[in-house]
Amino acid sequence: MIPRVLIVGAGLTGAATAVLLQRELQQAVSVVIWDKARGSGGRMSTSRSASNPNSTVDLGAQYISCTPAYASSHAQFYSELISNHILTPCQVVIEGMRDSDGDTKHYVTPKGTSSIVKYYLQQSGANIHHNCHLQTIDVKCDDGVETILAEHQGSDQKHSFDVVVLSQPVPQILQLGGGIQDILAKNSNVLKKLEEVEYSSRYALGLYFSPGTKFDVPWEGKYTYDDPCVRWICIDSKKRGNESDADGPTLTVHTSVPFGLKHLEDNKQDVQKIILQHLSTLLPGLPEPVEVKCQRWRYSQVYKGVEGGPGCMKLAESKTSLLLAAGDAFVHSNFDGCIESAKKTSHTIIDFLKSNCKL
């Protein structure tokens, strides 16, 4: 019987794990992905205008920064994405960027950062289910054979898997119901490490403008450090090199983390008004957008990850089942952190399946 693997979360870690499993095992494993959102991408989110699907804006990750070390260790990933025109070198002016290494290369995504995730998902051939919000995780034992049972919101059925990978933010793992709470309680060391993970929070605005709109600024992206609200402003369509006279430009705004934390539980519409007020001060004469989207990133970036950066963590294991937690919290919070977690996770799954004669 073909082993069944469930990956929870259709973000970068989940998508990269799925494609690595497919390329190593091909048809020897069945991969299913659940995500609670309507679409894939996670924090690599590209949002479309409600009135014009060709007008898009990145609300999450803005660009990919590749250090010399990762340019070497992840060369195959960068090469593939560049050759398939998913990534292109960043050739625009970004003011206020603070590079720790002058040799770091920056890349943008012409079709939006979610195109990286969607590319990996398409390559993986995984069975993807959106609007599937995981609710419970249990372990079932029949005649000495353990399987992991997963149930999503709105379902009255528990689905059985040999391997489950939880790639959503760690606080969401800790909030799951079912037997996983007993599993974590019995392993106090693992639970302590998970509880120590911390995330930053922020808001993002996507502004869509009418065709012909121009911005009189000498940059495409800018970090601001004096404003208490706004931290990043970007002419997103220009940054990605996909400006179109027919569609109109788009603008991305990210708030500072302190502002995000202060207003985390506030009404989004009220927060949007505050951000727009600050934006109008920073960009006087800003044209009126035809549409604005406000995104609350409760789990924006990992502020404090799992000690030691293990790549993934075993939550439960028997000879017949494996439960893992993965994601950028287990390495560090960027593209390469997610890729590194996916590599570790896929290797762990393959080693488990081979050692227990499931392949």
What is the structure about, briefly put?
With 359 residues, the protein is α/β, with parallel strands linked by helices. The chain contains eleven helices and 20 strands. It has helices spanning 12-25, 68-73, 75-83, 114-124, 170-174, 180-186, 188-195, 236-239, 257-262, 268-282, 335-355; strands at 4-8, 30-34, 46-48, 56-58, 64-66, 88-89, 94-95, 105-108, 127-129, 134-142, 145-152, 159-161, 163-166, 198-208, 221-223, 230-235, 250-255, 291-304, 312-317, 322-326.
Describe the structure.
With 359 residues, this protein is of the alpha/beta class. Strand 3 (46-48) and strand 4 form a beta hairpin. The strands form 5 sheets. It has a 6-stranded mixed β-sheet with strand order 9-2-1-13-20-19, covered by helices on one side. The model has no long low-confidence stretch (mean pLDDT 95). The chain has helices spanning 12-25, 68-73, 75-83, 114-124, 170-174, 180-186, 188-195, 236-239, 257-262, 268-282, 335-355, and strands at 4-8, 30-34, 46-48, 56-58, 64-66, 88-89, 94-95, 105-108, 127-129, 134-142, 145-152, 159-161, 163-166, 198-208, 221-223, 230-235, 250-255, 291-304, 312-317, 322-326. 30% of the residues lie in helices and 29% in strands. It starts with a strand and ends with a helix.
**What's the helix count?**
11
Main β-sheet, spatial strand arrangement: 9-2-1-13-20-19
Biggest β-sheet strands, sense, barrel: 6 strands, mixed
Cα-based radius of gyration, to the nearest Å = 21 Å
Rough outline: globular
Average pLDDT confidence is 95
Tally of strands: 20
Tell me the fraction of residues in β-strands, as a range. Answer: 25-35%
Structural class: alpha/beta
